């Protein structure tokens, strides 16, 4: 059985390849591709694999873009670190999804699920599945958090999501920074906030910052394909977006 890995982070791809070898020695990895462009070119020149393991966010876009213009009959197991709104869709529309870091037991279960399938889907079925998946992504029906209750001395103050400029993590504490510059501690991690807040309005810039669209004041090109941002109100620390995330960030800005 031949499988394809689509993953833009080399350590993650290498780890997944080793886990697959442990989960099923009969699986041969025919290629590891790191971008939408590379995947499209590969599918144009090679027969489809039996199974695809695909990350969601690649260096030059989302992996869904690969399948929009390329007819692929192979079942897909998605891997992801976030985007909870998409995870719910994958759970219904695809074979399985694996949260990073991928665990061996979960990987084995996903492969077993593939083996239990009776026959491969037709091209039309694959197209319908992908169309349904893409339709679900922007409108998952999830109710996002719209307000927080923060404490200031002896007062409890309601803060609405559209009043928030950004969240900043520092020394295991997370600050909520309002557009008027006021700051409050919140009892959530950035990982939790990323799942709670509407991804159309908030973006996880890096490990330290998660910002509202309206707080992005200026964007500068930086070393090695990174982006340097200026937020409003101004952040106390430098705000960088990695090269790997820059494309997704710019797509988010465009809407």
What does this structure look like?
Helix 1 (10-23) packs across helix 5 (104-116) and helix 4 packs antiparallel against helix 6 (123-136). The longest helix is centred in the first third of the chain and has 14 residues, at 10-23. The chain has helices at residues 10-23, 36-45, 64-68, 84-93, 104-116, 123-136, 190-196, 243-254, and strands at residues 2-6, 28-33, 51-55, 57-58, 61-62, 76-80, 96-99, 147-152, 155-160, 164-170, 173-178, 183-186, 202-204, 209-212, 216-221, 227-231, 239-241. It is of the alpha/beta class and 255 residues long. Strand 8 and strand 9 form a beta hairpin. It is elongated, with a radius of gyration of 20 Å. It has two domains: 2-136, Rossmann fold, CATH 3.40.50; 147-254, Beta Barrel (OB fold (Dihydrolipoamide Acetyltransferase, E2P)). A five-stranded parallel beta sheet has the order 2-1-3-6-7, with helices on both faces.
CATH H-level superfamily of the largest domain: Response regulator
Number of domains: 2
Alpha-carbon distance between the termini? 39 Å
The CATH class of the largest domain is Alpha Beta
Number of H- or I-type helical stretches: 8
Mean of all residue-level pLDDT scores: 84
Radius of gyration: 20 Å
Task: List the strand order in the largest sheet.
Answer: 2-1-3-6-7
Order of helices and strands: EHEHEEEHEHEHHEEEEEHEEEEEH
Q: Give the class from helix and strand content and strand pairing.
A: alpha/beta
Shape: elongated
Keywords: Phosphoprotein
InterPro entries: CheY-like_superfamily, LytR-like, LytTR_DNA-bd_dom, Sig_transdc_resp-reg_receiver
GO molecular function, one term: DNA binding
Organism: Rhodocytophaga rosea
